[in-house]
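Hi R.,

Here's the chain you asked about this morning:
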Amino acid sequence: MLKTNYALLLAVTIFSASCSGPGKTAGNNAPDSLHHLVQHYYDEKMELFPMEATMNGEHQYDGLLQIDIGEPFRLKLDSFYTRYQEALQGIDTSTLNNNDLISYSMLQREISVGKEGLRFPDYLMPIQQFWGLTLTLPQFGSGTSAQPFKNKADYEKFIQRMKSFAQWSDTAIANMRRGMSTGYVLPKALALKVIPQLADLAKQDSNNVFYTPLRLLPADIDSTGKNDLRTAYRAAVEQYVLPSYAKLHDFIAKEYLPKARTSSGIDGLPNGKEWYMHLIRYWTTTDLTPDQIFATGEKEVARIRREMDSVKNSTGFTGELPAFFNFIRTDKQFKIFTAPSQVLDSFRAIEQKIMPAVKQLYGHLPRTKFEIRQTEAFRAASASAEYMQGSPDGSRPGIFYVPILDASTFNYTGMECLFLHEAIPGHHFQISIQQENDSLPKFRRFNWIGSYGEGYALYCESLGKDLGVYTNPYSYFGHLSDEIHRAIRLVVDVGMHSKGWTREQAIRYMMDNEPVSEHEAVAEIERYMAIPGQALSYKIGELKIRELRDKYSHSTGFSMKNFHDELLKDGCVPLSVLEEKMARRFK
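And here is the predicted structure, written out as tokens:
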């Protein structure tokens, strides 16, 4: 059906372009043609990526699990991009309004970057410790995530997804064997991290996250229906899911690990340098070179270290900065918790404290509800604090997840800064306002661009004093620690993926320049090894947003409230589009 609609749309677009004449131009229909095009693009993309559709609240594909790591899928995706790329060429942009120009530019970029990305064989390394289907499926199956479990049909849909996972895992193993023969394999350190995750998810015990929905069966199903559903659901878990995780575990532990590579960066793979340049364009939406990014990172690290040194001196600490790092990291006065509930309650107290000031800096507040939760045990060891967006219909809140392995070691100095970034007014505001804006086409309502989204969240950390936090030097030092953390990322990401740095070299650089433990530094550096380029998006985007705020701060009509509302109203946009739209608003 989607292909038929698309063919009709394309025919109309071509017909409009061919019938131009006096008083009748292709441009007269350009806005309508573009609106149809972006809607059909989104609809067809959701069919191609049904897990993403579920996250977006599009539940017509909740029973599907695309085998998106297979060659047939990649050929289909390439054809999909090509068709829409050709259709966009039929749009006369001269008659589009500003909002439509943003849509046109964003769709054009997404298609171009997506098509380019198919040149690189990421499907040969389909599993790593930070994200991917082996971790997303159990999140969906937890009963508290995007996958609904409200009625019998919902359970049956996830049963179908679990059955499909067996095919996905077999495809993943075949792909990884192909990767082993062609040089596309994970670094050994990452393969080692994956093994315990898979072992945990393969366990047949009641604590396995896949059994959780059996404790949440809908009350309106009678006892016989519940027994039948429970039997069918448990059978799917035990016949398809657990054996698949066990098979993946054994394959990686016994066959894959000995073939894993010793290099840390993507430049250790065939065509790795070109692949990294693509990932820089994808994540930063810029044409910056690795050398330019590296130099920016070193400059920012030096600047922030000077400010950290000043804060250290203000506390009366007499040692050097590395000694202060150790003091902040280890002194008992900064570790005030004994239970995870206390950590979560402290984050909730930060929310209550900042909200009056937030309303002075933002005119438009999101409607989506917000919750703070502890990260699930099965992924906590390799997870960072993170935000998971709510559903646009309000049925699922936005969730700030906090990994707490040991509450007694949780350091309070970075909590305020972390909350501003991941929760309010960071990701929760940006993503919720974007999803709630039904004047945007769906492909923009549910779009994510790292340099904008992460750049904005990092920018929010700088609002702490305006929001009534960072009131003691240690909490402010926590903010500086998080800021230098993002500057360090520019150095170590480029260092590993473009300059031959080892994992150990990157860990040492991080520990020399911020107050993190070796365990924390290892988890961070291995994250950058797993997803090259993603770590660049934060600081690159934040620097652009701060540059724009400074540029327009004395313009007519400028206020912090107006600036933030304009910044957020169009959702995630590439940095070049952000510059253009802010110039129109505050020129």
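One quick note: The two ends are 45 Å apart (CA to CA).

Cheers,
M.
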